[in-house]
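On clarity, I found the account of how folds are encoded harder to follow than it need be. What matters is that the chain and its backbone geometry are given together, residue for residue. I therefore recommend that a typical entry be quoted early in the introduction. An entry of this sort, consisting of the sequence and the corresponding backbone structure tokens, reads as follows:
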Amino acid sequence: MGRLSAGGAQFVIIESDPIYSDAALDRICTRHDIAANKRGALKRVLEEAGQVYLDQMQLSGRPTQTIRLRQDLRKGLCLLSELMELVPDMHEAGPSGADSAHAAALREGDRQVKSAATRSLGLLADAPSTLGYLKDVYEAALESAARGARGAPERARTIDRWRSPVIEFYTRTLGRAWMDTGTEHDGERFIRDCLAVLEDGAAKAEQDEAASEVAS
């Protein structure tokens, strides 16, 4: 997907289907009088914030699902910690003994994999830093899963987190006033219409998951 900005075009790979269909975006733009030249910016904001929303809502699932998820994340974290201890630092000069043989074996494995590769690969020397990054990701994911187990309070936090960039788009990109009067106004109606797409998608995902569990 191309991301157009004032400084040129930036291209971002979207690994899954868009959350907001063209029809949904057209409906939102029409209802709230959003010009065509702002449609792309709206799509970027809604897709990025929407993916966070859906991920966080999935983490606020049923208790049994959350327990199993946390167990799997802990297992992955333990395996990463063990692997970090086993992978020698290829940047260090002249490892000796077992570390030297380990490094030699990994270098030979790296050569063989690259000779048969049909796609771009990483650098063997970057393995320790990559594993360290993955360990940090697993730790943060475990923390997120723990927060998700809190239920309603975490769901409210997720909605607030989603609202923030959408309100910023409304006030800054569209240049419209946000009236915090405690009652529904144009801004809140915009929020409601954008959120409805996510709620419908989340409800359908839950139904599909329940049907899959019954079938299995």
